[in-house]
Design a protein that fits this description.
Blueprint (H helix, E strand, L loop, with lengths): L1 H19 L8 H19 L10 H23 L4
Helix pairs in contact: 1-2, 1-3, 2-3
C-alpha cells in the first residue's frame, strides 16, 4: 500500500512541478511520477540534511515539490541553456 501512495503522491508532485516550470506538455504521467519521487529525494537531502522522512505531511509534500522544481530547473538548464 505504501508503494501505491508514493506513486500517487509522486505523480501529483511531479505534475504540479511541471505546471510551475511550464514543462507539462512535454512529459507524461510516468515522467511526472519519476520527477516527483526524485524531487522528493532531492528536497529531503537539501532541507533535512540527508534524513529522508518517508511520512506524508504538508511539510514533506512542500519539500518534495521544491525538490521537483529544482530538478526540472536543472534539466531545463542542461537542455536549453536557460531555466525559463
Amino acid at each position: 500500500m505504501g508503494l501505491i501512495i508514493w506513486l500517487v503522491v509522486g505523480g501529483i508532485v511531479g505534475w504540479l512541478a511541471s505546471m510551475v516550470m511550464r514543462t507539462d506538455a512535454q512529459q507524461g504521467i510516468l515522467l511526472n511520477i519519476v520527477v516527483g519521487i526524485v524531487g522528493a529525494f532531492i528536497g529531503g537531502l537539501i532541507f533535512s540534511g540527508g534524513n529522508v522522512n518517508p511520512a506524508l505531511s504538508i511539510t514533506s509534500f512542500l519539500v518534495s515539490l521544491v525538490g521537483a522544481i529544482i530538478l526540472l530547473a536543472i534539466v531545463n538548464l542542461v537542455r536549453r541553456g536557460s531555466v525559463r
